[in-house]
Amino acid sequence: MTARSPLLLPKNFRLANGSVINSIGFGLWKVPREQTAETVSNALDLGYRHVDGAFAYGNEDIVGEVLEKKGIDRKHLWLTSKTWNSFWDPTMVKASAEDSLKKLKTPYMDLLLLHWPVAFSNPEKKLDKMPVKRDGKQLPVIDREAMENLQHTWEALENLVKEGKVRQIGVSNFSIGKTKNLLGFAKEKPVVNQVEINLHCSQPDLVKFNQENDILTQAYSPLGSDAKQASYSKEPLIVELSNKLNVSPTQLILAWHLKRGINPLPRSTNKQHLQENLEAMNIQFPQDVFDALQEEAYKTPTNRIVDPSASWGVDIFSDEV
Q1: Where is the NADP-dependent oxidoreductase domain (predicted)?
Q2: Binding-site residues for substrate, please?
């Protein structure tokens, strides 16, 4: 590899509508309730201002309490939530969003995402993230009619923008085909698509499509989640390149995401790791290192860590609508 000038990594990303979002966010997925207050407090103290949450994570109320105690000027925070699968009915879209706003103790959400391209039946319209029981098991009943009428759900999200309760809207776990379908009728275009992206799930075609359509790609499980992070960090190329740059494997991988134009959302309950993750944007990142990581990622078959398709009984990541 021939060394070239270091690449500057972005501190922020500008969305299609002009809004600016911090380039490294703090993810709340899998942060236990009993650790949420301390973890969020530590993250804010370290300088995180982009907090990625969801109704289904079950910890937004604790996040709201911490935010209230910290007293950080609201305009300096970026708060994301997600509409759960049981809330595709337009009235539920609004009710669940208002529930999250109340828990987070904020008058508006910076970003609200449709959590999955999958709707669960919720005939009683309960604000409950659990699916109804089927055959004695806690399995979802898929509401295919709602999925076929995504436009109605999306209009409800657009109305939240009109009402000022949400600043911008987007999607999560949407394939290229499903996003194309949405773009065909959306008046308020999705500014974000949050998907699993890591070393062995690099999704280059989806990232390219999002970029071509002014949609920011956000990466959950950017380090491989707790299932694969340790093993990914010990791969020979990762060890070699991180030693070369005198950075941690975690920082190396986060820098790779940033250079790809991807907004990573790492999660940790360890304060030292939180600091380490945030400092990844300051790395001097040579082109040859980036090229080597690209080559490694692109030649690796997609290995999803998060895929509930089998348990939900629907092919989530297909391009079929």
Answers
A1: 24-295
A2: 115
